[in-house]
Design brief:
This protein has seven helices and 34 strands. By secondary structure, the chain is α+β, with helices and mostly antiparallel strands. Strands 3-2-1-4-5-6 form a six-stranded mixed β-sheet, with helices on both faces. Helix 5 links the parallel strand 4 and strand 5. It is elongated.
């Protein structure tokens, strides 16, 4: 890559390193990484920008000396088209490099490029830090949120002479280069460019070594080319994007090409090709009208004048449930587990379908969420799945519980499964339910108003196969005692209690009381009277339902 020495030297200066400067021991640097949608674009060596940036930045920061206070800000990695999508991924802290390296791998490009506000946040987080203070911006594009990063850089520098802003232009075009150079110049720092994997990796590897050794690197002034006073304009004609479908892929309801930064629609297509002006585009796929949401395919496609660019649609997922399983209410692939904090309609999933078909999805590592039905099942986290580019990955849904309870109980209010982390999942339908392998606590509640939960112990789901969960044990009282009655069954081994409350009469007999296996003491309290023990001790075996006449 051109001017490698300049790149290395400028980047070292970006960390505020000067071996002759007093107070060198505690410089503070805030990295800003562009994780906007255009970072799925390809470098000259064919690799995506974000893949290389993750690897190189992670490797660099993990080797930073403990004396360097480092933090990381990212933007555009959580939501499409949202200029407020700026996150302090890691606050400035001593030996922060290792933590940054661990977190940068989870960043997945999606949105816009709010450079101005990211710079403002970085400067705010550096306020009050002593010694050298440096912002290092790595961006592949121009501001797309109507801010003026150049003006802000100048204002920040004027208000804080000790602050430097250095910029890496990462595979940028001429317009972006002009703006990013201005940010570096007005911010009192240096600008350098990186256009391929080896260039970026080689430069930043040497930067890490220079930091550790505290070596000074001389910055060579860049050569300035003379330009003619006349301007020649060449008008570029359109190019074509043509789909190349794997044999398992069917033509979708439609597909779109969009601006990778803003997510603005450029064209909606139902054929296998589209003609468009030169530029960079992202594809959005709508598999079915009623069985899928739009899925953004992350790779950025470059269209050149007069040329046809083929785009392979060959990365996908096929979930394989047990034979006879009805279509799901939905399933989602989540690239960010913080989405689990939101309802399923408010998430930003990488894919969202409600069919079992083989469907296109982006390659990557995801959390798989499945909900079998709207009313009888809550959603289940089935853990991590890895999808390889250029391959249809089949994931058998072949582990879980086969739920059953007494036919006499008819419809239950819910059956609750609780995993080791305390996450609860509820069902109210018999038959197979999908669960990730692990050990779960099981509880059943027969009715909403008259029964409390009854604990049924634990059950283990294996790596493969469905385990029968037959919740058929309990007790039923045959009696004609009338009135407002509460019955409490206390497990003598663990102290857990289950209750029923009932307004008993000859036409409204006492209901059954589900109980897990164990030893119980049963108490009864009639409204207006003190509690009384009606069964001092009774042992209920697994699958045993006892009738008690009173």
């Amino acid at each position: 890559m051109k001017n490698l020495k300049l790149i290395i030297a400028s980047t070292v200066l970006a960390f505020g390193i000067n071996p002759t400067t007093p107070g060198f021991a505690e410089p503070s640097s805030m990295f800003i990484l562009d994780a906007s949608g255009s970072m799925w674009g390809r470098l000259e060596d064919g690799r995506s920008k974000i893949t290389v940036a993750r690897e190189v930045l992670s490797g660099l920061t993990s080797k930073l000396p403990a004396s360097l206070n480092a933090g990381l800000i990212a933007y555009g990695h959580r939501r499409k088209g949202d200029c407020s999508d700026i996150e302090l991924v890691h606050p400035i802290a001593p030996a922060g490099g290792a933590a940054i390296g661990a977190k940068v791998g989870s960043l997945s490009p999606r949105g816009k490029t709010p450079i101005t506000e990211a710079l403002r946040l970085a400067a705010e987080k550096l306020t009050g830090k002593e010694d050298d203070r440096t912002i290092v911006l790595v961006s592949d594009g121009i501001e797309t949120c109507s801010g003026d990063p150049c003006a802000l850089a100048e204002a920040l520098k004027n208000s804080d002479a000790g602050l430097k802003i250095h910029v890496v232009g990462y595979g940028v075009d001429a317009d972006a280069q002009k703006q990013l150079q201005c940010v570096a110049e007005k911010g009192g720092g240096a600008y350098f460019e990186a256009n391929d994997t080896s260039g970026l990796s080689g430069a930043l590897t040497q930067v890490t070594e220079s930091i550790a050794k505290q070596e000074e690197i001389v910055v060579e002034a860049p050569a300035v080319e003379e330009t003619a006073s006349t301007v020649q304009i060449q008008i570029a004609g359109p190019g074509t994007i043509k789909l190349k479908l794997a044999d398992w892929v069917q033509m979708p309801k439609y597909w779109k090409i969009t601006n990778p930064e803003t997510a603005d629609e450029v064209a909606k297509v139902t054929e296998d090709s589209v003609t468009t002006m030169p530029g960079a585009y992202q594809l959005v796929w709508r598999h079915l009208e009623h069985g899928a949401q739009e899925v953004t395919l992350p790779e950025v496609v470059s269209v050149a004048p007069g040329q046809t660019t083929e785009v392979a649609i060959d990365t996908g997922l096929k979930l394989v449930p047990p034979t006879g399983t009805g279509k799901p209410y939905y399933w989602q692939l989540l690239s960010n587990d913080t989405d689990l904090e939101h309802g399923f309609r408010k998430r930003e999933p990488a894919a969202w379908y409600w069919v079992w078909d083989a469907v296109p999805v982006p390659a990557g590592d995801y959390t798989l969420i499945v909900r079998q039905s709207e009313h009888d099942h809550s959603e289940v986290n089935l853990g991590k799945v890895s999808l390889e580019k250029g391959k249809l990955t089949e994931v058998p849904l072949d582990q879980g519980l086969n739920l059953a309870w007494n036919d006499d109980w008819d419809q239950i209010y819910y059956l609750k499964i609780t995993d080791a982390a305390g996450v609860e999942t509820k069902f109210d339908s018999r038959g197979p339910v999908f669960l990730a392998p692990g050990t779960y606590k099981v509880a059943l509640r027969l009715s909403e108003h008259n029964h409390s939960e009854a604990e049924f112990g634990t059950i283990t789901v294996p790596e493969q196969g469905f385990v029968d969960a037959k919740l058929t044990s309990g007790i039923k009282f045959e009696t004609e005692i009338p009135g407002e009655i509460k019955v409490t069954a206390k497990n003598l081994d663990n102290g857990q209690e289950a209750q029923i409350s009932w307004s008993a009469s000859s036409s409204n007999p006492w209901p059954p009381m589900p109980l897990g296996p164990g030893r119980y003491q049963v108490d009864m309290q009639i409204k207006g009277s003190a509690p009384m023990t009606i069964v001092p001790e009774v042992t209920i075996q697994a699958g045993q339902f006892i009738t008690a006449k009173m």
